[in-house]
């Protein structure tokens, strides 16, 4: 029943389609068994498979399970005629091709068969070639139909897909004709720009383009025939439909890609344009924010250092050209750190923002106010004719800040220090002008703040020296450049050393010995004093311990503390711990503080001194008499000694002549305080002091501050300290120890 025979003739389409869709099944329906057997031989081709049966009933039974490419159907069959099968096929919407084969010579039968859907009709007796042609034809036609159907199905699916993609695309997709008018636009246009699609048809694309951007696109759209064959990309702003403008503005920035639409015959002739426009507003906004952030200060939204420098450079270039002048102001908020530390950063931020707003309000439109960082602002005044112009603005700035600023903790009166540098007088580059304005500002800070000052070249050298000193001081401790020298305090009555004052020395690698008067204040200002004081304490204690180990009994050693040391909470613990570590008797130890420390008790100085005194440590007021000498604080602060300042000693001319010293000795007696006179240089002073009731002295007359080795020698031979005095006394024939 099934037989496959090679045949030389292979129609192309049948071959390809056969492999495509598997085999061509052919059903032979004939009641003549010998015919049924013959057909497969006659019609054999590669890919053809034959089934056979003898009745309509059997044929239907097969068709119910099997699909055929072709049915060779005998017209007259034992159970019914072929038309019945044709009807069945129609009824079951089958697409098998049918060739009716019949001995009927009536044309009616053929017509009826063809009407009912048969594809061809072969009349018996027929020539084999005739049958073969009919079969080839029917199969070929069937195959074509099938391929066609498949193709159109695929096309439909693909069209559906593309339509879906285009219509639901988040991009604006459109086509234009050769005159640049819309021929298609996807529904996105409504959501993006607010236009109805239909309203745009046949209207020029350029009606959507913002006027400022027209020239970017005009050339590309108006003569599309001159477009190059390649796509183009351009960034444009498209306008929203009137009335649909929203919070995002009246236009949308898009990146438009256009692809020329070419004719099929001639791929150089452009007949229109495919366009895709992508909304890039978000990206644009992000770009703007990023570039804003790169050039502005986040807190105040003012230009930052980078933008300020840029503008200043530009202004300098312009001033150069028109030989004009300009001014740079450096503004630093006074006591800002105090607000930040006391009230917290949030309050500090409020303060900075308020100051920024007030400064802005005093400036003109062309001026640039920038925040360099922290509490530093700069102003560029590009139109200055004379220094007075800048002066007027500086005064305005100071005035603008005079009304108090409300912080959540209360009112704060902000002041600023302003330095001004002028171009071309004070510098020719942005860097130089800013630096010089900074130097001038710094001078204002040093001389009382809340004022302005112009740059003065002399300031500059001093400033540079100071900066260098600061930097060197930072590394002085690490590089072991600090030393302690000692100066004895002697009792004339007892002819012995009652104390040693430790005095700090800095051996600067280039400058040599730098006196403490030069660097202690710097150390205080740059916050290094805490470390330095700790070093002094440690050094002095270990020195005393060392002397003791050699069998000596060193006298009381005093060290000088700075007001800043009392702002540290742990000063008491630091000192007592250090003494304990070196197993020193606290009574052997004295602190020298200045009157200024006691002027206000913000850091709880009184209670700290109380603790130190309770621990057995002596406290002396240094340079007594130069400050406020208020008796009230002597009651409040538990000190143990007063040191008469050198300046009073220097003025001593004869006995009993100095009312201040008399007063001080009186105070010391009244409060039961020890008394030491500083800066005693000659015998006359010593005698006068003695007469005034002060017999403990310190000064060059006995010894200059000297190295620990020298101090060691004094401890062994204290008499040596009195040699000069004794010699002078012998000359004047006075007995000072009497
Ligand atoms: P001071 O505590 O009043 O120290 C006395 C100063 O007078 C010393 O100056 C000393 O050398 C000087 N002097 C002593 N006898 C005479 C004299 O007969 N004639 C003259 N003309 N001067 C005399 P020095 O060592 O330059 O110290 C200056 C100031 O530096 C000190 O004044 C003290 O306030 C401060 N200082 C010194 N060492 C330290 C330290 O370790 N820490 C702190 N915070 N300050 C220190
Ligand atoms: Mg001192
Ligand atoms: Mg002193």
Describe the structure.
The protein has 738 residues and is α/β, with parallel strands linked by helices. The protein folds into four domains: 4-154, Rossmann fold; 169-284, PAS domain (Beta-Lactamase); 296-455, Reverse transcriptase/Diguanylate cyclase domain (Alpha-Beta Plaits), CATH 3.30.70.270; 476-723, TIM Barrel, CATH 3.20.20. Helices cover 44% and strands 22% of the residues. The strands form five sheets. Strands 18, 19, 20, 21, 22, 23, 24, 25 and 26 form a nine-stranded mixed beta sheet that branches. It has a five-stranded parallel beta sheet with strand order 2-1-3-4-5, with helices on both faces. Helix 12 packs antiparallel against helix 13 (345-362), helix 13 crosses helix 14 and helix 19 runs parallel beside helix 21. The chain is elongated, with a radius of gyration of 54 Å. The structure holds ligand C2E and magnesium ion (2 copies).
Net shape: elongated
Ligands bound here? ligand C2E, magnesium ion
Number of strands: 26
Mean pLDDT: 87
Q: Which secondary-structure class do the elements indicate?
A: alpha/beta
Count of individual domains: 4
Which short descriptors sum up this protein?
738 residues; alpha/beta; Rossmann fold; Beta-Lactamase; Alpha-Beta Plaits; 4 domains; 9-stranded mixed sheet; 5-stranded parallel sheet; 26 strands; elongated; binds ligand C2E; binds magnesium ion
Describe the structure in brief.
The protein is of the alpha/beta class. The protein is built from 27 helices and 26 strands. The chain binds ligand C2E and magnesium ion (MG) (2 copies).
